[in-house]
Amino acid sequence: MGCCNRRCGLIAGAVIGAVIAVLGGVLIPVGDIIIKGTVDKEAVLNPGTTAFDNFEAGGVKVYRQFWFFDVQNPSDVIQQGAKPKVLEKGPYTYITRYLPKENITLNSNNTVSYVLPLGAIFEPSMSVGPEEDKITSLDLSVVGAYSLIPKELHLVLESMIKKSNTSLFQWRSVKELLWGYDDPLLKENIGLFSPYNGTYDGYYTVFNGMDDISKVGLIDRWRGERNLGFWNDSYCNMINGTDASSFAPFLDKSKEIFFFSPDICRSVSASYEKTVDLKGIDVYRYSLLPSTLAAPKVNPDNQCFCKEELFSRNCTIAGVLDLSSCQEGRPIFLSLPHFLHGSPSLREDVLGLDPHEENHKTFLDVEPTTGFTLNFAKRIQVNMGYGPSKVITVLKKVKDYTTFPVVWMNETAMLDDETADMFKKELISRIEMLDIVQKVLLGTGVGIFVLCLIGYCVVRCTSPTKFA
Q1: Cβ of 331: how many Cβ atoms within 10 Å?
Q2: I need a labelling partner for 326 at 20 to 30 A (CA). Which of 20, 64, 439, 455 fits?
Q3: How far is 389 from 236, CA to CA, in rounded Å?
Q4: Which residues are 328's β-sheet partners?
Q5: How many C-beta atoms surround the C-beta of residue 410 within 10 A?
Q6: How far does CA 2 lie from the centroid of its chain?
Q7: Residues with Cβ < 8 Å from 375, sequence gap 6 or more?
Q8: Which of 382, 383, 333, 351 is closest to 76 using CA atoms?
C-alpha cells in the first residue's frame, strides 16, 4: 500500500511538473504577443501614447558643436601659392532644437503634420572659448562669387574685391561666421547658417502607424512634396525613411534603416554595426557606410548626386557632395569631418587634416524593441572651393582647385539619466521579469517532472514483486 501511494504521488508530481513546464513554454509566445501588442500600441503617433508624448514635447535637447579650421599661413597661400595649413579650433557648442514642434495637425489619412522651429543658444560650459573668438577662414563672399561668376567676368570681381578691401581669407568671430555678418563685398548679411534663429524646417507630414506600425514615422511629405527638387533624377530626389528620431519597432539588425536629413539635402541609409550598452539599455548602433559618399564608379547609385563641376573632377572624387542646388546657389560642398572616407587628394590639398573613424563618423543608437533613437551623433563638414585665376589678384598664385574645409559640426543628443531609468523601469524591467518568470516556470516544471520520473522508476525497481 505504501509503495502504491509513493508511486501515485510521484506520478502526480510528474504530471504537475509537466503542466508547470508547459505553462512556462506557453508563456514564451504569449509573452511575446503581449510585449508586441503593448509596444505597437505605445509606438503609434496618437494622442495619449508614449511616442506621441515624446513627439509633441520635442524630446531631449540637441547640441551642435562646431570645430573651425583656422588657417595658419594665409599670406603664403596668396603670395606663394602654398597649400593652406589649418589648425582645428573648437568645440563651440550651441543648444539647438530645444523648441517643441509647432502646428501639429492630426490628418484623416493616418498622418501627422508639423514644423520644426530652429534656434541656437550658445553654451559656454561646453565650449573652448566665447563665440567672439576670432578665426582666420575663407572669405565666404569672395570664394562664393568666384564659383558663381563666369571667368569672363573675373575682371569685374577683381574690381569689387579691391574696392571692398577684401581678400581670399578673413578674420571673423565664431558668431559672425556661423550666424552672419554684414559683408563689405556683397553689401548684405551672410553666414554659414544664416538665417537660422526664428526660421523653420518643414512642413513635415509623417505616417502615424495607426494602420500599419511598420510605417510609423516615415516621411510622407516634406514642404508639401513627396519628392525633392534638388537633383535632376527621380532616384536621388526620393524621400526615404524617417527624420531619424525614431523608427518602426522590433528592428531587424540584418536590414538597413533609412532617414532623411534636410542638412544634407538627401536621404541616406545606415547599417547595423554593433550592440552597445547605453546607460544599462542595449541599443543597436547604426553607422553610415563609406559607400554613402563614394564616387559613382564605386557606388553607381551616387551618379545622380554628382554634378559636373570642377571640384568633382568628372565625378571621380569620393567623399564630397555638391549642395549648391539646395543652398540657393551657394557653392557649399558637404563631406564627413576631415574628409573621412574621401579621396586622398582632398587631404593632400589642405595640410593639417587627420580623419578618425570613431571621432568623425555619423551613427545612431536605436533601442530595437521600441525603435526609439536614444543617442546619436550626426557629423558633417562644410566646405567651399577656390581655384586659380589669371585676373583676380588673390588667386593668381593658386595652382589647383582646392576644396577647403571651413567648419565641421557634430549634432548630438542622448537620453538623460532620468529618462533612462524610466525607460528601464517601464519597458526593460517588465520584459526581463516576464522572461525570468518564463524561465523559472519552465525550469521548475522540467526539474519536478524529471525528479518525479526518476523517483517513480527507483520505487518501482526496489518494490517487492508479487507472484500469483
Answers
A1: 21
A2: 64
A3: 33
A4: none
A5: 20
A6: 72
A7: 278, 283, 364, 365, 412, 413, 414, 415
A8: 351
- CA angle centred on 415, ends 410 and 418, rounded to 5°: 150
3-state SS class at 4 = helix
> What are the 10-residue block averages of pLDDT along the chain, 468 residues in total?
54 49 47 62 85 77 95 96 97 90 92 94 97 97 90 91 95 97 93 91 93 94 94 93 92 95 93 94 93 90 78 80 82 94 94 96 94 94 93 93 96 86 66 54 52 56 54
- Number of other CB atoms surrounding residue 15 within 10 Å: 13
DSSP 282-300: EEEEEE--GGGG--TTT-G
Q: In terms of Cα–Cα distance, which of 249, 220, 284, 212 is closest to 51?
A: 249
Task: Lay out the sheet containing 200-207: strands in order across.
Answer: 102-106, 111-117, 200-207, 219-222
In a 13 Å sphere around the CA of 326, the CA atoms on its Cβ side amount to 20
Beta bridge partners of 222: 204, 225
Cα–Cα distance for residue pair 463/5, rounded to 1 Å: 12
Contacts of 384 (CB under 8 A, 6+ apart): 138, 140, 143, 144, 147, 331, 332, 333, 403, 404, 406
CA 57 to chain centre: 20
Q: Residue 20's pLDDT is what?
A: 46
Which three cell numbers, joined as nine digits, stand for 25? Answer: 513554454
The predicted pLDDT at position 99 comes to: 80
- Residue 422 CB partners (closer than 8 Å, separation 6+): none
Indicate the burial class of 468 (C-beta count within 10 angstroms; 0-12, 13-18, 19 or more): exposed
Find cell 585676373 and name the residue: 391
Provide the grid cell at 5. 501511494
Q: Identify the DSSP state of 418.
A: H
What angle, rounded to 10 degrees, do the helices at 2-43 and 429-462 form? Answer: 160
Phi, psi of 363, rounded to the nearest 5 degrees: -145, 160
Predicted local distance difference test score (pLDDT) of residue 90? 96
The answer to whether 54 and 42 have CB atoms below 8 angstroms apart is: no
**Rounded-to-integer distance, Cα 170 and Cα 34, Å:** 62
- Note the pLDDT of residue 420: 80
